[in-house]
Recover the amino acids of this structure.
């Protein structure tokens, strides 16, 4: 019988945390989309899943347009491979757009004119930062607040009119989607639903239909429609009154590396909702409002909260134990901190903290 711990450990392999792959492009293509709201933290989320974490890996893909950082799946940023961007946008945007467009109502009849101005500005000079785009719009007689411009950009990204351009000194820029994605892959809706099911459950499995509905902002009806077409290429099992789907076969029982320092935006946490808590079999975390911005995992289980702080010389990890930790668990966390520090080219520093009443193990 499988346990929550078994499922969480299996996911370490599916998501390449315990089975790293060659290069950031393979990570993004495999996971289909990686939440990228915070560029620095999300870059590590991709890099930690590779054999050789390097800054220039993902950065080069973004510069060349092989990977885009754009709004897709949910009303937030994701990294998505250029080959998958259009069909994934077309499949999921109808349920995401209302969240964005409701906040653009104050633009009223100006929306069309402002949209035309954005497209004209980027056609004239692509790879503009948000500040530069605001200046170009102002020169055309369209003064927008920062929030309005951010929402407008998301609206245009969801319509596949604009997307990320070539980053400049680490800053996000915008370009025309048609300039960055020359030959977009197109799928019918039924084909896209099947493709989505196959790739989500292969890269995030074992997971449930409700997990996928949350992840892709789709209805359960659509998810089940995709599963119907993909079921002969997936396997499933029942656990805790849920049906879990996954790629054929089963991941190895061991997990290496054993420790991981992740943000709560990481796919290991944010990639699920219905079965998210298999990574907390001991019930150490609150099931209510999220209070931590990061977590320390050992063997797929949350054992501590984590906060990362960068200076010019060091990266400090504040580790707040949720229970006593054994020497092997602390060593796994120290190893995870060292891996991240090497990637950042900084000195690793760990600060261990305990909640009231918990002593150091």
């Amino acid at each position: 019988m499988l346990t929550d711990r078994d499922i969480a450990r299996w996911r370490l392999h599916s998501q390449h945390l315990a089975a790293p792959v060659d290069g950031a492009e393979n990570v993004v293509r495999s996971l289909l989309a990686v939440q990228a709201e915070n560029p620095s933290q999300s870059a590590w989320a991709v890099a930690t899943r590779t054999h050789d974490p390097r800054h220039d890996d993902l950065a080069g893909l973004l510069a060349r347009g092989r990977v885009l950082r754009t709004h897709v799946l949910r009303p937030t940023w994701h990294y998505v491979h250029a080959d998958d961007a259009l069909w994934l946008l077309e499949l999921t945007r109808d349920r995401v757009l209302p969240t964005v467009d409701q906040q653009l109502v104050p633009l009223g009849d100006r929306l069309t004119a402002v949209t035309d101005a954005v497209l004209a500005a980027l056609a004239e000079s692509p790879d503009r930062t948000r500040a530069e785009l605001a200046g170009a719009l102002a020169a055309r007689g369209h003064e927008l607040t920062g929030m309005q411009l951010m929402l407008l950009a998301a609206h245009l990204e969801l319509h596949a009119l604009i997307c990320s351009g070539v980053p400049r000194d680490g800053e996000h820029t915008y370009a025309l989607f048609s300039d960055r994605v020359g030959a977009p892959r197109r799928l019918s809706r039924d084909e896209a639903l099947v493709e989505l099911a196959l790739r989500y459950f292969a890269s995030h499995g074992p997971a449930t239909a409700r997990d996928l509905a949350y992840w892709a902002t789709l209805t359960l009806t659509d998810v089940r429609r995709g599963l119907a077409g993909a079921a002969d290429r997936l396997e499933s099992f029942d656990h805790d009154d849920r049906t879990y789907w996954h790629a054929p076969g089963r991941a190895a029982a061991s997990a290496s590396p054993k420790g991981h320092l992740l943000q709560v935006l990481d796919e290991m946490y944010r990639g699920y909702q219905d079965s998210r808590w298999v990574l907390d079999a001991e019930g150490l975390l609150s099931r209510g409002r999220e209070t931590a911005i990061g977590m320390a995992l050992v063997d797929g289980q949350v054992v501590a909260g984590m906060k990362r702080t960068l200076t010019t010389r060091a990266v400090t990890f504040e580790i707040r134990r949720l229970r006593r930790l054994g020497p092997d668990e602390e060593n796994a966390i120290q190893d995870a901190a060292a891996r991240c520090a090497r990637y950042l080219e900084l000195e690793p520093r760990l600060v261990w903290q305990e909640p009231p009443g918990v002593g150091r193990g």
In short: DSSP finds 15 helices and twelve strands in the chain. The chain has a mean pLDDT of 94. Residues 30 and 203 are 6 Å apart (CA to CA).
